[in-house]
Amino acid sequence: MRLLLLGLMLVGTACVADDEDYPDPLYGFVVGPYALVGKQPDNGATYSGRATLRYLDGQLVLAKTIDGKTRTAIGKVEVAAIARAKVLRFTWPGHYSTCLAHSDLDNNARLTCYWQRNGVEHKEPGMESYFPTATWPENRQ
What we know:
Layout: H1 2-16, H2 25-30, E1 32-39, E2 46-56, E3 59-66, E4 69-79, E5 86-92, E6 95-103, E7 109-117, E8 126-132
Antiparallel strand pairs: 1-2, 1-8, 2-3, 3-4, 4-5, 5-6, 6-7, 7-8
């Protein structure tokens, strides 16, 4: 029975394996297109947009478009100090974010993030949620 379970696990892993050689499996898990919703820090305005995560030249690149403006961040997998859990940390000019990556019901990555402006002590951080859109009709290949 153990051998059967091990065999099934190996086959499942091979089916979802990617050709890319990632330094951590989380990089490959989060790559793809997303819809995003967010809120500015300190009870600010809400917003929505689109985003794409890619793994390019050894780094995670997040391009998000809100109100027609695209901004790009560099991200990496880190281990959170308190919980010892893996998180994604992104940096843009002027602000940074920390995101949890978890699976939705279709086994796609969903991200929830807090973000803050550099040098500002916010009463409340900004928040963003990223919903995978790879299976939406517009993104199917």
